[in-house]
Amino acid sequence: MLSIKQFCEQLAVSRTTVLYYERRGLLTPTSRTSSGYRQYGEGELERFRTILTYRSYGIPVSEIENLLQQPQDKDAVLRQQFSALDLEIKKLRQQQHSIMTLLKEPELLNQGLLTKERWTEILKESGMDEQDMINWHKRFEQMEPLGHLKFLQSLNIDEDEIKQIRAWSQQS
């Protein structure tokens, strides 16, 4: 039997993560000590590894719950997730294409059609959160530093802010 600490160490997850999946009903300790401490066995380790694998595929917790109850649905759920990821990749490729179009036709940017606020709005509407936008800037700066600079200038961002954006974009 493993304590919750040992269980977490073996799986490289936090105690909070284990307790979250317990609250969701996906994991139950094998037993409790007389002091009320949770104990986990090999079955729980394997079950949690399965949960982590499904999460790494991007499968929502609610679907994982169904998969654990009805493992025969695994192929259908995995195919559905594959299709969802494929669609997401296509959307991201379209976004990349749109960005490249703007970069190849800087006059579109220079016409003042795109502002920093509007660009941020477009990225958010496309499903990006703050961290995604930071990563986007970092990739752009790595791949095309001059293009990134020109793009930021085209959004009418002041020079000090451009320096700040480029500085954190260059950090790993």
Helix content: over 70%
Q: Write down the overall geometry.
A: elongated
What Rg do the Cα atoms give? 23 Å
How many DSSP H or I helices?
Answer: 10
Order of helices and strands: EHHEEHHHHHHHH
What can be said about the biggest beta sheet? 3 strands, antiparallel
Mean pLDDT: 87
Count of discrete domains: 2
Which band does the percent of strand residues land in? under 5%
Estimated structural class: mainly alpha
| Uncertain parts | none
Strand neighbour order, sheet with most strands: 1-3-2
Fold and architecture overview:
The chain is mostly helical. Helices cover 71% and strands 4% of the residues. The protein has a three-stranded antiparallel beta sheet with strand order 1-3-2. A hairpin with a 5-residue loop joins strand 2 (31-32) and strand 3. The model has no long low-confidence stretch (mean pLDDT 87). It comes from Vibrio inusitatus NBRC 102082. Residues 1-70 form the HTH merR-type domain.
List keywords for this structure.
172 residues, Multidrug-efflux Transporter Regulator, Chain: A, Domain 2, mainly alpha, 2 domains
In a nutshell, what does this entry contain?
The chain is built from ten helices and three strands; from the N terminus they run E-H-H-E-E-H-H-H-H-H-H-H-H.
Describe the secondary-structure layout:
Blueprint: E1 2-3, H1 4-11, H2 15-23, E2 31-32, E3 38-40, H3 42-56, H4 61-69, H5 74-104, H6 106-110, H7 116-125, H8 130-143, H9 145-154, H10 159-169
Antiparallel strand pairs: 1-3, 2-3
Helix pairs in contact: 8-9, 8-10
Domain HTH merR-type: 1-70
Keywords: DNA-binding, Repressor, Transcription, Transcription regulation
Protein name: MerR family transcriptional regulator
